[in-house]
Batch of 4 targets.
Target 1
Amino acid sequence: MSILLTRFSFYLSIAGMVFAGFLVLRLSAQDPVPPPPHSPPSNPFASSVAAAGIVEAQGENIALGVPVAGLVTAVHVKVWDKVESGQPLLQLDDRELKASLIGQRARVLVAEATEARLRGMLARLEKVSDNRAITREELETRRSDVQVAAAELASARATVEQTETLLTRLTVRAPRAATVLQVNTRPGEFVTPGSTRSPLVLGDLTYFQIRADIDEQVAPRVRPGMKAVGYLKGDTQKPISLEFVRVDPFIIPKVSLTGGSIERVDTRVLQVIYRCPFSPTNTLYVGQQLDLYLEE
């Protein structure tokens, strides 16, 4: 009996070791790498410089700011609206300034009445021909009083103009003709100057501007006027021909990231600007990324 039990334990340990080895091999096996969802773009040139590009509006995007911190009372536009230069876009709370303006205009009326009264008195005194009726010193005092009243009137009117100018600043207007790309605020929200998120973003979509980032290691190979072809992320079968605009003469730290796992974020880049006409066949959107090839 003991011999059978010993043999059973031996065979059982052997089976356990075999199962453990199989389990280790199973767990250590790597799953096959799945194919990429989209084939990478093909380089159309025999010799080229690769770059990562981002789509902008013509003349770059306009991130509007506000002159003062305040409560948003009205937003006059929505995304895709076309606006003209000077068109109201955003209204900040102006009730406090309007209340101050009422008192300031009343003070202008008081100053006008005072100045008119003193000027009338002076005119009557200047018509008196008898020097015994009024002395020269009193006449000069009356003239000084008129000048002081005129200065107070000018000051009151300047205060009104200043307040009206401040009221005008609370209406944010379009700096130029463009299309509304983003609306990041709503009535009732509080906005501040210098915020990292602009309340409104505008852009001219007559042309799309492509800003290509080229690593400074290959920047010496870049020449003005280089022909370029771009491919949208996820659509590598439709090349987009680009027109050269300029080379920015200033190398900057890289800020537009593609999200690649091996991408260096401390790279400095030379920026080359291209443009692409707006077309329904080119499904480009501001902020979209492209893979670019610049022909050497």
Target 2
Amino acid sequence: MSPGDPYLTFRRVPADLDRDSLERFAVKLRAAVAPQLDFHCLITTDAELRRLNLRFLQHDYATDVLSFPESNDIAISYRTAVAQAALHGHTPEQELRVLTLHGVLHLLGYDHQTDSGRMARAEMKWRQKLSLPTGLIARAAK
């Protein structure tokens, strides 16, 4: 990624999505949470997330967000984000922000499955500072 490149790429931009707002959030996220991390986020389909999940993690199902630390890339399923937003009572844009934060924390080396709550604490701290709804780790704990 070179200076001026967008932080977000969409396979297909939904007409009702505020892309500029999400791009501004990604810039803010980098400045606040990960100033040393030049990340990129792909918003794509369930099918592509399933292919990536199978290829890299050997899990044959779609998921909401995947992180690839070797390339500083994040992939998010738009359809899953929309469904999760409806389930949790907030907008798709808010859910995409939650998922992007989660992905960035993974890029920074956090792993909620093995780090004894470090990622959960970091996610909660940044959700509060960034005015985001409940995150993935908190949802899973319920």
Target 3
Amino acid sequence: MATHKSAAKRARQNTVRNLRNRHVLSTMRTAIKKVRAAIEKKDLANLDTLLREAQSVIGKTRKKGTIHANNAARKISRLAIAVSKAKGYVRPAKTV
């Protein structure tokens, strides 16, 4: 238990921030799962909308500082690649 007044305040802030971060992370994971489920079901009609929503949620999660910027970029990139593959687009090979 916190002994000082400032430590007690810090504990309260940590509790609130933990709850907020958990909610934001859960929302992000759900958006990603919706995109992956649409890919599995070959639901190409809703795929673009779900991808756009997921990218938005991931960006907001990054902006709040819940995840690192590179983590967000990696998630967005991998989702976009998965959607492209589901649509039948094949990425050209990298040229050195």
Target 4
Amino acid sequence: MATLMNIKTQYPSMDDARLAKQARTEPEAFAELYHRHLTSVFRYHLAHTGNTKDAEDLTSQTFMAALEGIDSYRATGPYIAWLMGIASRKRLRYFRGNRPEVPLDAALQIPTPSLPTDKAAFQRLQLDQILGALKHLSQDRAEALILCFFSELSFAEAGLVLGKSEAAVKMLISRGLQDLRTRTSLALEVDYE
């Protein structure tokens, strides 16, 4: 059985699609996929649930479903988009159509140890402004922002999760940021390249 250190070095240059194919027969390959995408899935769930315990449970459920359904991944799109589709379905099942009261608060509690205290406090105030404003965005715009900025998906990958084109996701992000700008005093920008 490979150790965690061996897993990280055993598949360093292999792309996700090839790893997913190998994961059908090699547990170490799935472990590598897990390590590569754990943070994105966890942040996605944390942004929606607002607490660590529920985010951990949903993250676990997401990866269990991915492992059980790895044979259904056909590599027609990025693995992360397929995985986030599973995460989205787990989230929807969890909330059963109810929108969370505090969608992003806990995700923003992740400390940044390199920031001095005054800068960290200022950053926290900015994030609190964004939190308040995000509650008032349409669900599509908020979801696009969460997928792209918290889960760090590309516009194309977020489009696959949302069932929209890359251009539609860019428009959701643009309009979502515009909405946030009008609701906060922050200058929010994004690079669309």
